[in-house]
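G., the chain you wanted modeled:
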Amino acid sequence: MEHKTSDCRVWTDGLTIHYEGTMRLSGTEAYQPIMDLMNELLDAGAGPIVLDLSGLEFLNSSGINLLAKFTIEVRKRGDIGLVVKGSTRVPWQSKSLPNLKKLYPALELDIR
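Predicted structure as tokens:
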């Protein structure tokens, strides 16, 4: 499964969802194809699901909202783990990704 624009690419590899590039989509509706891709893995019922954001240089507030909604959805299910991988070389990740842990304390956060 893959979603691609001129600025970003999101694809799955097993239970890992990879994000790369710059995501500046406008609003919830523009992010819906990516949320659908994420929910397909969640609905499959296997886990843990890994969100590899280490290649994502920029994510706007609508995209951060997408991650928050997905994190809450995983928390509601309760039976699927969630791992979020980020990179210290991308400043927004060190600032924003720890907030996901506040939404779901069992989330495993790996920022290197």
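The chain has one domain: 2-111.

Shout if anything looks off.
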